[in-house]
Amino acid sequence: MKRFIITAGQRAAPSSRSTGFLTTSRSFSTVDASLRDNVPVLPRMPFFDYSPPPYAGPSAAEILQKRRRYLNPAISHFFKNPLNLVDGKMQYLFDEDGRRYLDAFGGIATVCCGHCHPEVVEAIVTQTKRLQHSTVLYLNHTIADFGEALASKMPGDLKVVFFTNSGTEANELALLMARLYTQTHDIVSIRNGYHGNASATMSSTAQSSYKFNIVQTGVHHTLNPDQYRGVFGSDGKKYARDVDDVITYGTTGCVAGFIAEAIQGVGGIMELAPGYLPAVYSSIRSAGGLCIADEVQSGFGRTGSHFWGFEAHGVVPDIVTMAKGIGNGIPLGAVVTTPDIANALTNRCYFNTFGGNPVCTAGGLAVLKVLEKEKLQQNALTVGSYLKDRLVSLTEKHEIIGDVRGRGLMLGVELVTDRKLKTPAKVETLHLMEEMKGEFLFFTHLLTKTKSLAFYLIHICLLFSDMGVLIGKGGFFGNVFRITPPLCFTKEDADFLVDVMDYSMSRM
Questions:
Q1: Which Gene3D superfamilies match (predicted)?
Q2: Does the model's pTM come out above 0.85?
Q3: What is the CATH number of the domain that holds 341?
Q4: HEC readout, 425-470
Q5: Are residues 281 and 187 in the same domain?
């Protein structure tokens, strides 16, 4: 058998745990023709000129053991054999053995500029060396500069910024603001929405998986304007009538506010039906309430067509919350509102120790600069549209795909076992995620087909040289692929993702 010719720069130096054929490169330019003809064609990952340094830390098994012993027992993990990711560069991640993965999940829609983007890293390191933390009781230009830059991205009179540490914290503050400003308690939210896991946000979240058995009062969950499974299809105005009914029959006629994501992230990349938000905003304001846009996942150009998800619906909220993409991985969140609403917090002392930390705000400001400099919103639109078209084309080939939806680089693929009944393909979703990641999934299958050691080894090499696609899952039934990669994603990456998905589905 001829030797494989390894393309330079495709493989990182192996760790001390790597052995033999498992360290084979991702790319092969020649394979013995007599064997190649019998090997299924696997997609080839795009070339990327970066190799991480060798990893000498603890193994995945050792980390998992510590995690089970010392960390939150409620934390789950993807995959039967959890990944130990030790390095990242732009849209790629690397495990302990130097294997490369295409990150199509982006740390749950968090990494927008790319992993370890040099300009973001430089801003963080420079500020850390100069001043890591003081307090907002003193002056520091980073928080003021970032606040100004963030306010410039907002429409209307949304010009006052409150910095937080997460999306949950931002939404908690927004709900508090609405209640203080209106002097009313009732909040309206949408079924299938997710807004956090603290007291008020857990109440406004309408998915049982994320709700503990504690007192949750003053929140009314209305019909989800789900264009795929909803009772009114894409007629947003019909769904909006349920909000009117809730206000009329479930409240005093006055509400504090309404909170919604323009595209439900945890809920399975479900974009609200057209016409829904304008109608609901009108009803809420007529009842004296404020409209809160949860942009934790859909903000910062991810949807491509607009910088904020709510802009696609032609509305201007009273309060906007954000996190995730705001810091490219830094623990940072924010609430932006009007001066009038912001004054509602001045009757008491509202303080946040780390909200506006110099390192975090320096990183956030760098993110805004990179988004503009590299035109990443436009890239999200261009590449996202291309990717969505390619995903839609798979529906003609694979019956398991029930729906493809979303905007820009916030896309969802819902899997079903029956298109007519829309039966959730929960088991199949997990299986495909494993296949797309790549694992020792072919061994038994191959040994039953051939006794040729050469054939067997080529399959192993190809398996470990390709696949390597990481996606998320969501939706109420856990049957939706969540595709939210870094915004530096390319058309070549999109092709590879779709080809891997196609290949994996073809093997089912």
A1: Aspartate Aminotransferase, domain 1, Type I PLP-dependent aspartate aminotransferase-like (Major domain)
A2: yes
A3: 3.40.640.10
A4: CHHHHHHHHHHHHCCCCCHHHHHCCCCCHHHHHHHHHHHHHCCCEE
A5: yes
